[in-house]
Specification:
Elements: E1 8-12, E2 15-19, H1 25-36, H2 41-47, E3 73-74, E4 77-78
Antiparallel strand pairs: 1-2, 3-4
């Protein structure tokens, strides 16, 4: 997998959104998880002295399909 971020990240003041369209559960969910890991999002956070609090993070799933809830990890904690 590439070493660059492949999901979209929007940062405004103290808020950060990271998202992507999930077309394939087998490909896109692991890719989004990789972008949440410290090796991708953390590089930007360290550069700008930002700290992410997993207790304040939320996952929003918008779909018309029925799929099992997805658990993502941030700093090795479920969000």
């Amino acid at each position: 997998m590439a070493s660059r971020q492949i999901s979209t990240a929007k940062i405004y003041a103290y808020d950060t959104k990271i998202y992507r369209t999930i077309s394939s559960l087998d490909v896109d969910i692991p890719a989004l998880q990789c972008d949440l890991q410290l090796d991708r999002l953390g590089i930007r956070a360290n550069k700008w002295q930002m700290h992410f609090n997993p207790d304040k993070c939320e996952v929003m799933l918008i779909t018309l399909k029925r799929i099992k809830p997805i658990t993502y990890l941030l700093a090795e904690r479920a969000i």
